[in-house]
Amino acid sequence: MSVGPASHGPRVAVTTSVDRYDQLAGPLDVAGCVPVRLPCIEIHRVDQATIAAVREAAAAADVVVLTSQRPVPTVWPDGMRGISVLAVGEATARIARDAGATIVGVGTGGGLELAALLISTTAGKKVVYPHAGGTADAMRAMLERNAQDLAAYEVYRVTSVAPPHDPVDAVMFASPSAVHGWFSARKLDDVVVAAIGGTTGAALREHGASADVVPDRPGFLGLVAATAARLLQKETSP
To answer: Which of 116, 156, 181, 223 is 20 to 30 A away from residue 171, measured at CA?
Structure first.
């Protein structure tokens, strides 16, 4: 069910794909903001033959590594019962757990912390890694060094698209691709700019911009809370 937007309050651009809109629109509405649907990315899934191959490989693997939520509904719409998952991020772990997977590790940090978790969990194991196209090189290289056997599959691809020109008071970016899509058609003059994390912030800098808001903990709810707080601060500042 789609969430009806608030009738008043600051207007906040939701730049993620259409299928993720409600995950941000609902919390924005609760925070007293007006969510504005301005998708800057589209998701393209692979063919069913590839999906079937991923499912077969995962059923025989020791662990499936998930670095985003999207492979779960894409590959396992009927659930992940019997599959062990190493998830990067609490949100990814939650959706896999809700699908019935057994969570063997959750990476919530970056750099050395994540590398240590990957090594301890995948060393000598049969690993399946379903991922987004064009984003897997570093992770795949790390897994190849440690896993006994690695099967990596591209299960979806993200493309940037130009958003509509609806006026907004703030814009939230949850991925570098969304940043690139926005700048293909719009600028960021006189709006509060929120980035979900450092990688998205770096994409903004590529376009000569910077984030006003970066939540302490990456994730949709943290992004909404930090954005709403910054808008409130702006409204009450003399």
So the answer is: 156
